[in-house]
Amino acid sequence: MKILVPIKRVVDFNVKVRVKPDGSGVDTANVKMSMNPFDEIAVEEAVRLKERGVATEVVAVSCGVAACQETLRTALAIGADRAILVQADGELEPLAVAKLVAAVAKKEAPQLVILGKQAIDDDANQVGQMVAALLDWPQATFASKVEVAGGKATVKREVDGGLETVELELPAVITTDLRLNEPRYATLPNIMKAKKKPLETLDPAGLGVDVSPRLSTLKVAEPPARKGGGKVADVAELVAKLRNEAKVLP
Amino acid sequence: MSSYRAPLEEMSFVLNELAGLAGVAKLPGCGEADPATVAAILEEAGKFATDVLEPLNRTGDLRGARLLEDGSMRMPPGFRDAYWKFVEGGWNGLAKNPEYGGQGLPEVVAAAVEEMWHASNMAFDLCAMLTQGAIEAIERNASPELKALYLPKMVSGQWTGTMNLTEPQAGSDLAAVRTRAVPQPDGSYRITGQKIFITYGEHDYTENIVHLVLARLPDAPEGVKGISLFVVPKFLPDAQGKPGARNDLRCVSVEHKLGIHASPTCVMSYGDGGGATGFVVGEPNRGLEYMFVMMNLARYSVGLEGVGIAERAYQRAVAYARERVQGRAVGLEKGAKPAAIIEHPDVRRMLMTMRAQTEAIRAVAYVTGAAMDHAKREPDAEARKRHQAFVDLMIPIVKGHSTEVAQEVASLGIQVHGGMGFIEETGAAQHFRDARITTIYEGTTGIQANDLVGRKTARDGGAVAKSVVGEVAKVARRLGGSGDSALKAIGSRLAAAVATLDRTIDWLVSNAGGNARVALAGSVAYLRMWGVVAGGWQLARAAEIAAAKLAAREGDAAFLQAKVTTARFYAEAILPWVDAHAALATGGGEAAVALPAERF
After folding, report:
1. What is the pTM of this model?
2. In the CATH scheme, what is the homologous superfamily, with its name and number, of domain A2-244?
3. How distant is the Cα of B452 from the closest Cα of chain A, in angstroms?
């Protein structure tokens, strides 16, 4: 069984992002970039499935600029077998990424696509669902436990009310939540081996996908600065403020 | 609280721009060290240091290693687990020979990674550092049988190693070693004696510990030419190479120390039950010679400890200075809100001193590390020799100066914290205490300085020293002629400092023989001059490269601008120390040796 793991290169979670002065977006020049942490969980899960003998091959795919190769190498160092870069220099919206991933999935014919439930840069939370729709495959989002056996995947999902368990016929799409696993540290020998693993580059046109944006960003702005709190003299004043100013009490 | 982050951008800049990583990667056997792979290695090592090693640093300090009644060592909670994560990650074998399972990466890459281990948890890394020393001694000198038996397990980290040199009466003077080795009919030796200050002499990480022990044969000549080196394992390997019979050696006590509490410093007793079984490394009576070859690497590693601790102390001080609000900053308008102390000029002075000094010792250490790779792997013998001469000159400087700087930086780190720095909970005090050993072990600063004056400067009439001085002067001239005012200022300060160093070398070459006591009384001052000038040299190169990139609108402008500013601060505030050191280095020590000993 083959698993396809789409991964995204994002601004590292430790970086405090800054909005560009012209409000056109977030400044990513000279900013440390890393693999989207949810996707790291996806790679880890795929590699564990392979280590358990359930999967035979793990293929990582990323859509974006040439530097995404570094992110793919990270996936290879964790344990993916090979990588595919769909190179596109402009902005890629979730639908475009979903179409690219679906096209790669048609080409590679995996039994499972596992990816992060969302990316920490735009928090769109759309690609996994769209890929499933485009391929007309079943989907299980926000997975916190995955088991695969007998052509079926059993997935525990984190939903508002608690946990929901669903069973899917393969091939299927699974998106990962934070508690699915704790990604390993890449070992030094595996980092060294990663650069010898195959990395293939495709382009969107070759996959027959039009990636031109369908949305236009009007403005990106910093959230308003947090105002300092105030002190209240007693409970009565607090209640009055909650009622009259915050309007959270009737 | 501050948490350690490996300074990846800075490390990459120093590796690529100053140490010439691309050139190192072209050396035979270094092909794996391309910049992308090295970046990936540093990134992952940084994660490991931050997530696994650093959280244990304070636990290790508080709990320490404890010797139990049954002779076993209880390591602080979490250390054993972290050690195995370290081994499973393959980190132990980073720069080791691929023939024995290492990754064979260059020394300069190992240096950057090692800095991270030291910064996040120096007491933890000492185990790997000592193992590395033992591997080196065996690999260079031991028989093929000993190598095949021990090296693969030590390179992977399955077994650890120790270095048993010191005895109560034999510290810096190893000629006084008394431990005895008696040849046995089967070719092995029976070892008896006591060793002290044995780092990681006992621990609960691994199934076996390989002790390297200096001892005398019964017929050995007196002094340094009568000392031999032995492998004395805790468990004697059986026919399959698995730990077999328990050898006659044990840890009898563990020292209470000022710092590095998690690193067990052991008193080891050999042969209480009649004699421990040992195997000679190389030829008898050449032990000390073998040790000294290996000691260069050990001294270099201790220099990196200085860099690591300084970086950690700096990061902690910056975090605190940003957080701590106190008073109103001078120069801001009246009625302004109380400011974080980072706004106060004297706090800035302290942080800048810490930053500039740390960047300087790092740059000098990595440049020396790259030269070690060239000295080992250049195809041309002349080139190897040239690089080795530079390495030999720089080792006492990297060891002596970096560790002395670490004292100053860790002390300033406490000062930035004010009273809170004196309280252990902030963590600043631990860096100060941990740093304190680095100017002592593997040869005190005084020993490094003697080496620098005698063997590294006077012996060749100052030839190698002068050639490096010439390189520094070239950079100073180039920057002095620059149209950029910051570079020009850096260049002129550096020119003055290196000229003073040049005159000091002349003085030493003519006085080290006839006036040896006075020359040696100023030897540490001479070493510090070298350290300060070498740091100024590398920061000047960094500023030059950064300015060129800024002009070409390449790279991260804020980072590059900081490089120029830091170099300027160093040139203006640190380089002038060279004059003060020069006074002591050129005869100012006369009074030190003039006072009769009984007057003290």
Report:
1. 0.93
2. HUPs (3.40.50.620)
3. 37
